[in-house]
Recover the amino acids of this structure.
């Protein structure tokens, strides 16, 4: 506060001196110029004396703040570089894990595909075997029916032929021969 009052007085000193000279006189005033220079030098000296330490302190503080800011910025930069390195490492790990997961998924898919193909082949073989068995069974049944039908037709044809050729005399002779055979065997 005292410094402000002193500074204010120093600023007003040239005006007070000009007023003390008695106002404006006509013509060059060398003494006034000398006094003005002296007042200006004194003013600068007083300003220098009063403001030197605060200005130096201000500059020192500002320099310290700037240095601290630079140090903080460098630390922040180092931390950022460390974090960037960590993120890069994590990214590389994630890429490796992703590659591992892809390979594992591909192996599982290949294994699953192989199992599906094996199951399909087994099912095809079973279906083929079942179909072949069914066809063989149908074929055997058809053959048996065909044999049965053929035997039936052959028997009917034979019966018809025999009925056409067999006369009453032949029937009697056959019956006698048959009875004779039965008698011989008993």
């Amino acid at each position: 506060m005292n410094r402000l009052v002193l500074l204010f007085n120093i600023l007003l000193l040239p005006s007070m001196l000009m007023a003390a000279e008695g106002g404006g006189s006509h013509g060059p005033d060398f003494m006034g110029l000398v006094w003005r220079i002296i007042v200006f030098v004194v003013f600068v000296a007083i300003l220098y004396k009063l403001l030197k330490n605060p200005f130096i302190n201000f500059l020192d503080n500002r320099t310290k703040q700037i240095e601290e800011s630079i140090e903080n910025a460098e630390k922040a930069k180092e931390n950022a570089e460390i974090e960037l390195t960590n993120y890069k490492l994590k990214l590389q790990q994630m890429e490796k894990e992703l590659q591992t997961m892809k390979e594992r998924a591909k192996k599982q898919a290949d294994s699953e595909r192989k199992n599906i193909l094996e199951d399909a082949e087994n099912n095809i073989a079973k279906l083929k075997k079942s179909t072949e068995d069914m066809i063989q069974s149908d074929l055997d049944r058809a053959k048996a029916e065909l044999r049965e039908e053929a035997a039936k037709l052959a028997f009917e044809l034979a019966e018809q032929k025999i009925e056409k050729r067999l006369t009453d005399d032949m029937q009697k002779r056959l019956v006698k021969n048959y009875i004779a055979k039965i008698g011989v065997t008993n």
Notes: The chain has a mean pLDDT of 87. Residues 30-165 form the longest helix (136 residues). The helical segments are 2-20, 30-165, 168-185.
